[in-house]
Amino acid sequence: MALPKIDLPIYELELPSTGKKVKFRPFTVKEEKILLTAQEADDPSQMILAIKQIVNNCLVDNTIDNLAVFDIEYLLIMIRSKSVDNKVEFEITDAETEEKVKLELDLSHVKVEKDPTHTNKVKISDDYTLFLKYPSVDSFSDMMVKEAQTAEDSYKVMINCLDKLASEDEVFVFDDFTSKEVDNFVDSLHSDTIKEIKKFFDTLPKVRHELKYINSKGNEKVFVIQGTESFFI
Fold first, then answer.
1. Which pLDDT tens digit goes with each residue over 67-81?
2. 3-state DSSP call for residue 12?
């Protein structure tokens, strides 16, 4: 007689990028092992692979394909909060006193911050509007594991985020064109357009949380938690 399969609770949340609802389950022992192995390796590339695998495993009727980086970060945090404990205790070193300070993070309070000026639409002429898409983990992963970001790295990410060019009568999808054709198009853009594209990246939504505490000198301090590795605890 086979061992019974244990049913896991199913939760639902809205993706920060689109508002679309997705369902997910908590970690199992399998995902816990992946998490621990990645932590012990202390390797950013292994960390990213683990995040992708864990989130993909825990999604119900969905995959991480085409999800924005901050969607996956947020999903990881919410899965973690439903799997182990939504309260995480850890220590930091206060910069002023150089003393250890114990902090507690409630993962259920973590949100994705959105800049009100952020938009994925760039008007490049009276006739045409450029539409951008959010960077995926795959398009961003090389930059995430590098200590220094080069101009070529930034250019590759920008190219990967070009979605379509549209007018009232026509729509051009960049995936339908060769790399050379896309490069030639980008080379023809006005510098003001490039600035607006850069603003899209500068104002990307991000998973970020502030924890306030009072140090031993009685001064109020703020510890900022941001980025996937910061929440990988």
1. 888 999 899 989 988
2. strand
Q: Which residues pair with 221 in a beta bridge?
A: 213
Single-letter amino acid, residue 223: F
Find the mean pLDDT for residues 115-134. 95
pLDDT at 216 over 90: yes
> Residue 233 is which amino acid?
I
Give pLDDT tens digits for 161-197: 999 999 999 999 999 999 999 999 999 999 999 999 9
Confidence (pTM): 0.83
Given a contact cutoff of 8 angstroms between Cβ atoms, the answer to whether 110 and 232 are in contact is: no
Between CA 197 and CA 191 the distance in angstroms is 10
Report the SS3 class of residue 22.
Answer: strand
C-alpha span between 200 and 73 (Å, rounded): 19
Pairing between strand 129-132 and 220-226?
A: unpaired
CA angle at 33 for the pair 31 and 34, rounded to the nearest 5°: 65
Residue 225: which residues within 8 A CB-CB, separation 6 or more?
105, 110, 208, 209, 210, 211, 231
